[in-house]
């Protein structure tokens, strides 16, 4: 999936992945895709809940070797 921007949130604990995601997505245009890399296990639930409450769209999420990747389309 082609992302407009990639956010490195590896090594950050809650709530920092959400804080960084919010700041990064504010700099994007509607329809742009933000790719997030995180190592915090809580990021999966946190990002899913945040996306629902903000009107953005979680397109995909993956996990491999402790690395979580998320693709969010700005609403």
UniProtKB/TrEMBL annotation:
Q: Name one Pfam family in it.
A: TusA
Q: What is this protein called?
A: Sulfurtransferase TusA family protein
What is stated as this protein's family in its record?
Belongs to the sulfur carrier protein TusA family.
Which organism does this record belong to?
A: Chengkuizengella axinellae
Q: Which residues form the UPF0033 domain?
A: 7-31
| PROSITE patterns membership | UPF0033
């Amino acid at each position: 999936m082609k992302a407009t921007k990639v956010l490195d949130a590896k090594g950050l604990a809650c709530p920092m992945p959400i804080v960084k995601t919010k700041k990064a997505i504010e700099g994007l245009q509607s329809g742009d895709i933000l790719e997030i890399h995180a190592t915090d296990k809580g990021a999966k639930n946190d990002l899913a809940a945040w996306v629902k409450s903000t009107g953005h769209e979680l397109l995909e999420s993956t996990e491999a070797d402790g690395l979580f990747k998320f693709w969010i389309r700005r609403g």
